[in-house]
Design goal:
Structural class: alpha/beta
Oligomer: single chain
Number of strands: 13
Strand content: 15-25%
Distance between the termini: 30 Å
Shape: globular
Strand order of the largest sheet: 2-1-3-4-5
Order of helices and strands: EHEHEHEHEHEEEEHEHHEEE
Radius of gyration: 18 Å
Length: about 250
Amino acid sequence: MVDVLVADDDAEIVDLLRLDLELMGFSIDFVSDGLAATKKAEAKRYDLIILDVMMPKLDGFEVCKKLRGSRLSAHTPIILLTAKGTIEDKIRGFNAGADDYLVKPFEFQELMVRMRVLFRRTGALTAQQTPRKNELLSAGEIELLPTSLEGRVKGRLVKLTPTEFEILYCLMQHVGEAVPLGTILQEVWGYEADEDVRMLRVHVGGLRQKIEDNHKNPQYLQTVTNVGYRLIINPDVNEPMMAAVSTAEGE
């Protein structure tokens, strides 16, 4: 059973989501304010959390920040819903730790597309683990641990959000290559839109702060002007090494 938490004080939105999500067979908990959302998510592990930005007591941005520091919800995919659709608001949402951002009014099918992308990342819709979830991906001094959404850089443990994990996973499939922005957007989000390029850059900035010794002078995750990004795993030698995939079990 897929468990979803929805926090929104708009009764009409809640009624629509209740009907549609329950028809999909999901188990849904609904709350109407940010404080209640925080308490629920700190007491129960959810497969997905949907937060309205403009809520009583605590807004969606603050809830998102709190949950990213929570033991149960640190890696839970979070979608923010809001009537504000400016780039600045979206960037604020991603900086708070959100994985996606949907502007009201929206079609339920659009929400489902976003949800399925996040479920694909975590394997929430599959009864058995996908091959990706059983893989340990290593590239030089960087390793990804899919079962815990963590990474290791020079042996140092790094906590990643689901989106940061997917971006790094994508780049590790193309070590040493310049990966176009459109390719990353398609592989990570499942769709491509010009306005989402700025959001991708926000996530890359957060990822650099976690994996780089100096995020202002990145050695691993490099920008390729007018193209996208490239992962260099042996910058001192300046020669790309191929990423290796091995089964996590028995390591």
